[in-house]
From TrEMBL:
Homotrimer. Belongs to the KHG/KDPG aldolase family. The keyword Iron does not apply. It comes from Sulfitobacter pontiacus. Keywords: Carbohydrate metabolism, Lyase. It is an enzyme of class 4 (lyase). It comes from the Bacteria. It holds the Pfam family Aldolase. Its EC number is 4.1.2.21. This is 2-dehydro-3-deoxy-6-phosphogalactonate aldolase. GO terms for molecular function: 2-dehydro-3-deoxy-6-phosphogalactonate aldolase activity.
């Protein structure tokens, strides 16, 4: 069972990428991004894509320009996540056959991103928008729009965000911090998946 959780592995290093990717997949998280401000991010993405690309959607986060989209595609990445909504990045991602999740905050940004071809919207930072802000924006978005809350969300508040209409979550430091072992990540991932499953079934 695939959950609507994107693991954000900011700071991961290539030598640990495969083991941590495996830990996440085993726990039930199969959408994984390496932010491009991590050490040698393309090497980590390539390692994970080559080893686990058939089992998980591997890609990059903090993607700010078209050149980065091409670089991620070249190493086998299939997902582009950004903190902003740049139509050129979205268009390039879709042209390369990749999934596109731009960062948005306002209705104007949401609709511009969707018009450019985004597959889903990254609500970032979601703690600024809040649950009530999400409810207001969801009321005007197309019903099928995928929304992911990122920043200030975690197992403790999955239920309230899901009740407000969010599709899923992007989890960073609650899943992985630089220096943590694959075993540490596995434990955090299992806890997140358990909380997610409980919230979606309640």
């Amino acid at each position: 069972m695939s959950r609507n959780i994107i693991a954000i592995l900011r700071g991961i290093q290539p030598h640990e990428a495969a083991d941590i990717c495996a830990a996440l997949i085993d726990a039930g998280i199969t959408r994984i991004e390496v932010p491009l401000n991590s050490p040698e991010p393309l090497k980590s993405i390539e390692t994970m894509a080559q080893t686990y690309g058939a089992d998980a959607l591997i890609g990059a986060g903090t993607v700010l320009d078209v050149e980065n989209v091409a670089a991620v595609a070249a190493v086998g990445g299939r997902m582009i996540v950004s903190p902003n909504a740049d139509p050129s990045v979205i268009t390039a991602s879709k042209a390369a056959g990749m999934m596109s999740y731009p960062g948005v905050m306002t209705p104007t940004e949401c609709f511009a991103a969707l018009k450019a071809g985004a597959d889903g919207l990254k609500l970032f930072p979601s703690f600024l928008l809040g649950v009530e802000g999400l409810k207001a924006i969801r009321a005007v978005l197309p019903a099928q729009t995928e929304t992911y809350a990122v920043g200030g969300v975690g197992p403790a508040n999955f239920a309230e965000w899901l009740a407000a209409g969010v599709t899923g979550f992007g989890l960073g430091s609650s899943l992985y911090k630089p220096g943590q072992s694959a075993a540490d990540v596995a434990q955090s991932a299992r806890a997140a998946v358990s909380a997610y499953d409980k919230a979606t079934l309640s």
